[in-house]
Design brief:
alpha+beta; 10 strands; about 20% strand
Length: about 290
């Protein structure tokens, strides 16, 4: 019985001698339980004592989990704010450095063509053609950069292609950009995902693939969709270096926290399985309406 621990008996004796009640918490190693102990002397004229034990292990765990969750959410909120600010800076730099330079180049070429046409009685068609071709190339570069920025801000492929095709495009684009083999296995069921859920799931896949690039050192990645029993299961797996169980809870694992927050916002959950040298599997489950 945990009440026979020597350090506890010392408290009992002090109450028996002084008559002053004590309330304290003690951890009992053999049972791995945390107890709240209230010790008091029932009668003033006796040296006896009474002890009331309350097992508060589950309550303390729930409290600690709640505190940790709040700390994680505060850290995530701060991190998301920093991410938004960094994203704004990145977009501003992209517009200024890339699009600004190409538009300035187009303007310079337009001025040259204008002066060439105004100052010469005989037009050098070859030079004008070369300038016009350069302007076209700059315009193409500007369009590509603009599309990239728009895609970062809003996944337009969801509107154009639908959810399943958009995830397939994301997997193909990841493979093309990184050189990592990335397969996609869609659900055999026809999936109807509303736009809010589709955007959050799309961002979760983006974050998972981004984490793989930054941390996993993987050579193969798989993205799968399964529908059934009223839910959609999305999995992103890799054959990378993995990590120890519980390491995803460390301070700074904001990518994983962000994925969990996105899933929670649409009524879903995120489960992560990983071990060193054996890769990682990220599994997202959300309620789903399946078309008949």
């Amino acid at each position: 019985w945990p009440g026979t621990e020597p350090s506890w008996i010392e408290n009992y004796g002090a109450v028996a001698v002084t008559g002053i009640p004590r309330t304290f918490e003690m951890y009992h190693q053999p049972t791995e339980k945390l107890y709240s102990c209230h010790v008091f002397r029932p009668w003033k004229t006796t040296d006896r004592f009474c002890v009331i034990f309350e097992d508060i292990t589950d309550r303390r765990k729930a409290t600690d989990d709640l505190v940790r969750s709040r700390e994680e959410m505060r850290a995530l909120a701060g991190r998301l704010q920093n991410i938004r600010e960094e994203e704004r800076k990145r977009i501003a730099r992209a517009i200024h450095d890339e699009m600004g330079q190409t538009l300035a180049g187009i303007k310079m070429d337009l001025v040259w063509v204008q002066r060439h046409l105004a100052d010469r009685s005989v037009i050098d068609r070859q030079k004008v053609g070369a300038r016009l071709e350069a302007m076209g190339n700059l315009a193409d570069a500007t369009i590509r950069e603009m599309r990239r920025i728009i895609t970062d801000l809003r996944p337009g492929v969801l509107d154009d292609l639908g959810f399943v095709a958009a995830v397939e495009w994301l997997a193909q684009d990841f493979g093309n950009r990184t050189g990592v083999e990335c397969s996609f296995a869609p659900s055999e069921e026809e999936i109807d995902v509303d736009l809010e859920k589709a955007i959050e799931l799309f961002r979760i896949v983006q974050e998972a693939l981004s984490n793989i690039v930054r941390h996993a050192r993987a050579t193969r990645v798989g993205v799968t969709l399964r529908a059934g029993d009223g839910k959609l299961v999305l999995e992103v797996t890799d054959n990378g270096r993995g990590f120890l169980e519980g390491a995803s809870q460390r301070t700074g694992a904001f990518g994983i926290l962000g994925m969990k927050e996105r899933a929670l916002a649409i009524g879903g959950t995120v489960d992560i399985e990983s071990s060193p040298g054996k890769g990682t599997a990220i599994r997202v489950q959300i309620p789903l309406f399946i078309l008949e």
